[in-house]
Design goal:
Helix content is 32%, strand content 29%. By secondary structure, it is α+β, with helices and mostly antiparallel strands.
Amino acid sequence: MSSVDRPLMAANGDDAVLPFAVDALDVRGRVVRLGPAIDALLGRHDYPPAVSRLLAEAVALTALIGTSMKFQGRFILQTQSDGPVGMLVVDFEAPDALRACARFDANAVAAAVAAGHDRPEDLLGRGHLAMTVDQGAHMSRYQGIVELDGRSLEEAAHGYFLQSEQIPTRVRLAVAEVLTRDPGREPRRAWRAGGLFLQFLPESSERTGHRDLHPGDAPEGALSAIEEDDAWVEAQSLSGTVEDIELTDPSVSAETLLYRLFHERGARVFEPQPLVERCRCSRDSVRSMIASFSPAERVDMVENGRIGVTCEFCSTHYEFDPQEFETGKEA
């Protein structure tokens, strides 16, 4: 790469997003590599492999978008659709925390896999993808929605940024299971995920065009003119050469990938953003949630003399004595 704004990352740069810029092409982007974090996240659930792969794609996409936003708060990606996987939810809490879960019809997923219809677009079906920015109680929430009409998460992301942000964007996502061999232990399979995010953000007057127009205000044909710019065509062509293995192989660092793609044009890389798998649930927050229900509703929650709640994101199970909600004292 022609220049580097910081020392190279140690090891293989897992569980981090690496921002970069290719000035010669007016392109900025990010590379995400998820190793132990995505393996731990998926390991908290007993999802079928096809569901785990789809959710891992959604986590990688969320990491790419969420870390690009300069805010304190949350970015939530959520799908609701009529496919075998009816809902995905990925929650990113700035600056680094990820959690996620999926809801699905186990029989429908098994039937789809048996029929060879296990691509992301097959499992999602038709519905919508929502992206929400929540900056806290005193700030307005922003939500953008794009239709899921048999498209993959990559394709839905392209449509979202073109329609809602007026920014030509390309996304590549990949998920894999790798065989790990820790010393003294039996080999086991571990999940990995990766992604590449490119946006055309021209600064030169001949390329700027209408990229700053509010959605819906762009004159007909303005966006296509931007997309056909030679620099953006070249950037898209280069990103199209990326193979899934390059995004998930632990031996291929983010810097190595960027060098392979843009060594002729030169790329600058910036400080990486580490990522962690972390849920926000706690015994106190779950207790407060239960206390918000009416006494009659709490009675319906009791099983075998206890009220039990399992966090859908991290699968942590909490149990409470029903009497503590009547007396105000913990059991």
